[in-house]
Amino acid sequence: MNRLAGKVAIITGAAQGMGASHVRKFIEEGAKVVLTDLNEEKGHALAEELGADALFIKQDVANAEDWAAVIAEAETAFGPVDVLVNNAGITMAKSILETTEEEYRRIVNINQVSVFLGMKTVIPSMQKAGGGSIVNISSMNGLVAGAIGYTDTKFAVRGMTKAAAMECAHYGIRVNSVHPGVIATPMVIQEDTKAAVEEFSKHIPLKRVAQPEEVSNMVLFLASDEASYSTGAEFVIDGGMTAQ
Fold first, then answer.
1. Which candidate in 104, 150, 171, 229 is catalytic?
2. Can you tell me which family this protein belongs to (predicted)?
3. Which of 7, 67, 119, 152 is exposed most, by the fewest CB atoms within 10 A?
């Protein structure tokens, strides 16, 4: 129960869904966690529930000044950062003909630019810590085609992960990407999509969608010293979808 003992972690998009699951798992395993999100109400409530080892900070992940403030507050509260989980992201299900330039730039900023900013800003803090682990949440659509905008940015996260891993290896900083398939988060299993998700699950080799905790277990592994020789790699959690 102490696989992250002594580690300081930042998890973005952490007020609900997979992000909240990651936060709970990290706290259980002994980490001190800064959780960030735009949803202040849910973010503060989760941090209050989890106690003194959790700190919520409101953050726009596409804003460089917000990133600088988050790193500074994390160091003040807990010390240099050992782990960054770039979890924040949005999805969009429009065709290329329907997607406006404004919509496209928004998804690029949130899903792609935020990952660049997070890595760039956290590296000096990890250097103070003597190394670290960056876990970038991509998608199975970072490996195979999906919706325009979403697919593009998730492929970009995969590429940035590899480039950063090569650059950061000599700092003792590992960088890996996680590629979830369909996960049973509130966004996915809400009433108007529940039937469609159940139908889609029949086409998944394991015949079910994943629970958020299953992704959290992979993120925990990569954040921990157990993954000390893994960097620049993709870790796929899709029930076999991309193996077909």
1. 150
2. Belongs to the short-chain dehydrogenases/reductases (SDR) family.
3. 152
